[in-house]
Amino acid sequence: MPLSRRRFHQLCLGVLGASLLPNAAHAEPAQGRDWRPITPPQPSEVPGKIEVLEFFAYGCPHCGDLNPLIESWAKTLPEDVAFRRVPVSFGRAAWANLQKLYFALDLLGELPRLDQAVFDAIHRGRVSLFTEPAIRAWVAEKGIDAKTFQAAFESFDVDVRLKRSDQLVRDYGVDAVPMIAVAGRYAVTGQAGKGQAELLRIADELIALARAQAGGAPAGPAAQPQGGS
Which of 5, 78, 114, 125 minimizes the number of CB atoms within 10 Å of its CB? Predict the structure, then answer.
């Protein structure tokens, strides 16, 4: 049956609309579905950079699942993005000890070697790393001198970073982990996401949104991700 001009235009518009749907769906992340606002917005601690924070806890199994993905993802971030991880405790003494473990390992330069090992020990090996004696015994097994570790664990530097992390949790309204915050304004929720990788896709879109709002252009990839808080 021959097509009328009206029907022809309807079909053309339908095909065009269908071809645009994938891009339109990811053109801009949606509030409520992909992100929630951080109120009030928080300033970047790295001037001129889009700051991305990952709030996490070694005691959180979902954080352990995300860790290998976010580690690889962070290495691909452009130079105008500053990535930082923030361990949280939510007021739990056991998790506060794990916060201190993270900062002590970072201070000693052992974080790249043992970061994932902490997650694996807790969630796969069922090792109870929630007390200071248990932590000291575990790091000794990993070849770290006991006195050197204890000095770092109890250092003023670690104490300052611990308090700063707790303050960031309050400022950013963190109520669950893992949580990714972008540009001090967006907290990734990913309620419609299909997995951990979806959180990172949304974070990429929010980074692009923050860059566009600042009137900037994407920079080249960074050599290495930023360290801990």
Answer: 5
CB 188, CB 203: distance < 8 Å? yes
Q: Quick check: is 220 in a domain?
A: no
Rounded Cα distance, 150 and 147, in Å: 5
User: What average pLDDT does the chain have?
Assistant: 86
Per-residue pLDDT, 226: 42
Integer Cα distance of 156 and 137 in angstroms: 22
Q: Express each pLDDT in 31-40 by its tens digit.
A: 988 999 999 9
Structural domain for 49, as ranges: 28-213
Residues 6+ positions from 45 with CB-CB distance below 8 Å: 51, 82, 84
Secondary structure (3-state) at 51: strand
Write the pLDDT tens digit of every residue in 127-174: 999 999 999 999 999 999 999 999 999 999 999 999 999 999 999 999
Distances (CA, A) of 49 to 62, 71, 141: 28, 19, 39
pTM value?
0.82
Q: How far apart are CA 60 and CA 98, in angstroms?
A: 11
What are the percentages of helix, strand and coil residues in the chain, rounded to 5? 50, 10, 40
For 173, the token pair is: 């309204």
Q: What separation in angstroms does the CA of 145 have from each of 105, 108, 109, 139, 197?
A: 12, 11, 13, 8, 37
The widest CA-to-CA distance across the chain, in whole angstroms, is: 87
Instruction: Please give the Cα distance from 166 to 150 (Å, whole number).
Output: 22
Helices 61-74 and 196-213: angle between axes, nearest 10 degrees: 50
